[in-house]
Amino acid sequence: MQTTRALHQYVPVDNLPEQRQQTSFEISDRVNIRSPSPVPVAQLIEETDVWNYLSCMGVDRHMIHSLLINCMYTDDWSLDKLKQNVWQEYLFWHCVIAVVEDSVELSFKENMPIIFENLNYSSVNVSVFLRKIRNKMKSVFKKKDLSIGKEQAIGIAFKDVGPICEKEGIRLDWLKNPSPIPNKIDVTNGLIVELRKVRMQHSILHKTVALWVQFLCHLNYTPDSDGLKRNIELVYKKLSKISLHNRQNVSAYLTEQYIPPQKRNTLCNSDLTQMKKGIVQKSITERNSLITPVYYYVDNPVYLAGCRAFGIVDKILTGPIWRIIESTSHILDLNKVWFDFKKILEKYSVDATELVEGKVLYPEYTVQDKVFESLFLIDNEELNILTTEALQIVLLNFCIIIERQLFDNLPGGSLNEETEGVNGKELRDESMTVKPTNIVSERDFANLDRLKREKPNANIIALEGLILFTNNKTLHWLDQMETEKKTQTFKIARERAPAMLKQFKLRKEHI
Predict the structure, then answer these.
(1) CB 182 within 8 A of CB 218
(2) Could you write out the DSSP letters of every residue in 232-271?
(3) pLDDT digits over 391-405, tens only?
(4) Rounded-to-integer distance, Cα 403 and Cα 165, Å
(5) 403 Cβ partners below 8 Å, 6+ apart?
(6) What's the rounded Cα separation, in Å, for the pair 48 and 25?
(7) Which DSSP symbol is given to 409?
(8) Residue 89's beta-bridge partner residues?
(9) Rg of the chain in Å (alpha carbons)
(10) Integer distance in angstroms from the first to the last C-alpha of the chain?
(11) What is the tens place of the pLDDT at every residue in 435-452?
(12) What InterPro entries does this protein's entry cite (predicted)?
């Protein structure tokens, strides 16, 4: 077919070249736009009747094209619609062949499997199948009898579940009545997308879907059905974006491990919406000085984008990093963590689009709860752009702070084992007791603030003694000591007390 056929719907017929012989499919297009044609009336009626019949069944050229290129096109279709006879009729597949042949960007090898997948048909030999369709349609046009083309094509069997479900041994009867399974199943994003399609087709309740996830992922809890719904829609929405903009990454995303939502009761996007509605219902005179600015902040896209950006930073970056720090046994092991984190900041401070789309950087340490889901279930282009800009500003400042404060821990620094001239073994031994976090010191200052409020007349050295007495478990140490040794220790402490107080006063004056 000539490539100019695709332009017939948009270019007036008079402007098309007249030297080329017209095909039957081009004629049908011209009839659809009510353009004159020089072909015989008998042939014109035959081709037109095919498309008119499909039009009566709710099928047009645009739908067929979408079925050929978008493997998720029928995900929201009902089971009754998928089981309509029209999808198995020769007339329908005749028009599918026509759409492929009339397009330069479509091919039978790449696009026919997509339409088979969309219509839930089992594996079909494409070349044999096309041959059958063409032979049958020759008979239709020869006998001028469309009823022959309404027969069902041979060798197509409707599938109840998708190929991943079949591979994992998941059957429709189990999905309708789920129960615990002993064997472990690799739950990927692709499997979740297939299960979403099954739920839509068979009108299965979200509570049942929650049981699917519990049993397939071997969770010790049943996920909240509302949160799970948002979680699955997030996976589906991200796949849709990838398939439209970066189709070569679809397979990689489908094979990624699915992360089920955590069991938490936190503020979600719907809660925020309800709060906003409740505030709107109040009159200005009823609002207090706190709720009024909160209302305007929520209603201002710039403030909302800033809050969302900090939420994304917490859920995707700082939250997981903190959990990594807490799980680290030696502080020097964090050097590589900081170096990798710095590279991530440098990358996304230039373009943070992937973060706004919900890309998980630390899957094992990321908590995907309702707050996480609400951050990415936003279909507002303006807010997404503002959030991306806010993230890039925040991450750029993070990068500057890391370069400044963690200079010694990065490659080339004095506390990095890989730096030339640094004795890694000696440095590791010396820092064996150094804590990876500053939680202990922060707790000490919190206790100091509390003691200063409770004992305003006590001096700092006395308060320091109380904190050290607690942290060092001095009482337990004294209880294990013999009486004579304990008496001697108390005597030494009393004798040294005046000198220690004098030294404290000198240091205080110096400070």
Answers:
(1) no
(2) HHHHHHHHHHHHHH-GGGHHHHHTSBP-PPP------HHH
(3) 999 999 999 999 899
(4) 48
(5) 342, 410
(6) 9
(7) G
(8) 152
(9) 35
(10) 89
(11) 888 888 888 888 899 998
(12) Oligoribonuclease
